[in-house]
UniProtKB/TrEMBL annotation:
Domain Alpha-D-phosphohexomutase alpha/beta/alpha: 14-161, 196-305, 314-414
Encoding gene, per UniProt annotation: LOC105125194
UniProt keyword list: Carbohydrate metabolism, Glucose metabolism, Isomerase, Magnesium, Metal-binding, Phosphoprotein
An example Gene Ontology biological process: glucose metabolic process
Phylogenetic classification of the source organism: Eukaryota, Viridiplantae, Streptophyta, Embryophyta, Tracheophyta
Alphabetized CDD domains for the sequence: PGM1 (cd03085)
The organism of origin for this protein: Populus euphratica
Known function: Catalyzes the reversible isomerization of alpha-D-glucose 1-phosphate to alpha-D-glucose 6-phosphate. The mechanism proceeds via the intermediate compound alpha-D-glucose 1,6-bisphosphate. This enzyme participates in both the breakdown and synthesis of glucose.
Assigned protein family: Belongs to the phosphohexose mutase family.
Protein name: phosphoglucomutase (alpha-D-glucose-1,6-bisphosphate-dependent)
Length: 579
């Protein structure tokens, strides 16, 4: 093949957000748009991660993925990479990409040094929806801010990109295709999307005990992939490996437009699962399953449900941490530490304190957990946004979280499956609250708000922080019975491993009784601004941990809306999504 230099001009809007670059497909389809970002990434990497290197390219299979894979493959050859690895049909979940970078050995003994993950995660897909691209490093984790800043700088000055005149490669068939260029050979290796990931899961969990649980007539199960890439793993893992019934899988055929749905596993968007679990409005006579779970488009998120019961993601990570050592073989030697993102509830903090574990609070986004894990400081971590994971890889992992819950259930029921009453998901959560107290928690999202208005709202909240007296006057004017604000700031994080500092990571109002209000602007949207409001209240008294969460939080919600003048700034009387 021959390599050519193509002249291009910069786009001004290629700043990576919380998790890569996400834009409407129409934006990505502009001539040279994707190429500019890919070349800017190659130019930002150390030379040894480009020349002669092995790159993984795959994603959640959304619309435009196949085109992108062909474009990136040609550019990889043009930039002197030695080989590209592609999951069959271009499918790899985000956690599987992380596992493949860390664990996979190619047919010729090669190892990967990085990946382009093609996904916009939980954002809808299709010609009129979102596409996205993100670069992951040698450790299997998202590029740190040092690299993403450099990529962005490069996108502002780019003048040319390199590409090879290769034919399109067949990504549907497993095998290696070789090409020779003036500087040597270039290979494209298409491999099975699931086998490396399954091997890793088997090394972490006791599949035999989970199989026993899933095959017990007492235990019923349901998994909804929302037509995302989790479908490429669900049948192999839950049905073939663990013996679940095929009818327990919902929407497990990956589709490029997610069947027209919004592949976000929460109570609003995972409608079918929510109804099946008896949480919908129309309560059918069919008895709901004991356990239900869903994933997002790229399968790094998870929602865990019990029969007519919702587990908040903040509780989920705390409960996994509290039970990991007993229930999951990978952790049997103990946890190195635990971590959560700042807006995630403090349920994990209480577990860390009780079990005497190292604890870290990082900004939103998985990239901040990676350094802690690489340094051996953290085993289990999570975010309130339905992200849970561990140091087995450097991404959050939706199927891992389900297997973790199934392991806990299998462990708690190890003597009950043949006789005795099943310990349910709800039992596990209520027992956890009784032991550790409960963190009532909710998040309000105001999506696609005018960007200027959102900025102003945030600026006002920052300004207000200079006078706690004024804040408390406003608070007591709205609700006389909530506790006092004792501290307010903009969250700033100093990475304990490399000392790097991340500023402006969200506005916090901390109350005397441990309650918190947090305001952030989303960094994953593709249109306008999304304001996220996080509301949390701690209840230690076991007699008061059984309340309905929206009831319990109503006074704090009123304070948050009043303090931020939400309606005044955004014109919205209600959030788009409540989780
Ligand atoms: C959101 C979540 C954050 C998560 C990120 C990526 O970011 O809040 O917790 O890490 O999405 O998840 P933001 O900036 O919109 O709040 V995913 O599954 O979209 O890769
Ligand atoms: Co995701």
């Amino acid at each position: 093949f021959n390599v050519s230099r193509v002249v291009t001009t910069p786009f001004g809007d290629q700043k990576p957000g919380t998790s890569g670059l996400r834009k409407k497909v129409k934006v990505f389809k502009q001539p040279n748009y994707l190429q500019n970002f890919v070349q800017s990434t190659f130019n930002a990497l150390p030379p040894q991660n480009v020349r002669g290197a092995t790159l993984v390219v795959s994603g959640d299979g959304r619309y435009f993925s196949e085109d992108a894979i062909q474009i990136i493959t040609k550019m990889a050859a043009g930039n002197g990479l030695r080989r590209v690895w592609v999951g069959q049909n271009g499918l790899l979940s985000t956690p599987a990409v992380s596992a493949v970078i860390r664990e996979r050995v190619g047919v010729d003994g090669s190892k990967a040094t990085g990946a382009f993950i093609l996904t916009a995660s939980h954002n809808p897909g299709g010609p009129n929806e979102d596409f996205g691209i993100k670069y992951n490093m040698e450790n299997g984790g998202p590029a740190p801010e040092g690299i993403t800043d450099k990529i962005y700088e490069n996108t502002k000055t780019i003048k040319e990109y390199l590409t090879a005149d290769l034919p399109d490669v067949d990504i549907t068939t497993i095998g290696v295709t070789s090409f020779s260029g003036s500087e040597g050979q270039f290979d494209v290796e298409v491999f099975d999307s699931a086998s490396d990931y399954i091997k890793l899961m088997k090394s972490i969990f006791d599949f035999e005990s989970i199989r026993k649980l899933l095959s017990s007539p007492k235990f019923t199960f349901c998994y909804d992939a929302l037509h995302g890439v989790a479908g490429a793993y669900a049948k192999r893992i839950f049905v073939e490996e663990l013996g679940a019934q095929e009818s327990s899988l919902l929407n497990c055929v990956p589709k490029e437009d997610f069947g027209g749905g919004h592949p976000d596993p929460n109570l609003t968007y995972a409608k079918e699962l929510v109804a099946r679990m008896g949480l919908g409005k129309s309560n059918s006579e069919v008895e709901p399953p004991e356990f239900g779970a869903a994933a997002d488009g790229d399968a790094d998120r998870n929602m865990i449900l019990g029969k007519r019961f919702f587990v908040t993601p903040s509780d989920s990570v705390a409960i996994i941490a509290a039970n990991a050592v007993e229930a999951i073989p990978y952790f049997s030697a103990g946890l190195k530490g635990v971590a959560r993102s700042m807006p995630t509830s403090a349920a994990l903090d209480v577990v860390a304190k009780n079990l005497n574990l190292k604890f870290f609070e990082v900004p939103t986004g998985w990239k901040f957990f990676g350094n802690l894990m690489d340094a051996g400081l953290c085993s289990v971590c999570g975010e309130e946004s339905f992200g849970t994971g561990s140091d087995h890889i450097r991404e959050k992992d939706g199927i891992w979280a389900v297997l973790a819950w199934l392991s806990i259930l299998a462990y708690k029921n190890r003597e009950n499956l043949d006789g005795g009453k099943l310990v349910t998901v709800e039992d596990i959560v209520r027992n956890h609250w009784a032991a550790y107290g409960r963190h009532y928690y909710t998040r309000y999202d105001y999506e696609n708000v005018d960007a200027g208005a959102a900025k102003e709202l945030m600026a006002c909240l920052v300004k207000l922080q200079s006078s706690l007296a004024e804040v408390n006057e406003i608070v007591s004017g709205i609700q006389s019975d909530v506790s006092k604000v004792v501290h307010a700031d903009e969250f700033e994080y100093k990475d304990p491993v490399d000392g790097s500092i991340s500023k402006h990571q969200g506005i916090r109002y901390l109350f005397e009784d441990g309650s918190r209000l947090v305001f952030r602007l989303s960094g994953t949207g593709s249109e306008g601004a999304t304001i996220r409001l996080y509301i949390e209240q701690y209840e230690k008294d076991p007699s008061k941990t059984g309340r309905d969460s929206q009831d319990a939080l109503a006074p704090l919600v009123a304070v948050a809306l009043g303090l931020s003048k939400m309606q005044e700034f955004t014109g919205r009387s209600a959030p788009t999504v409540i989780t």
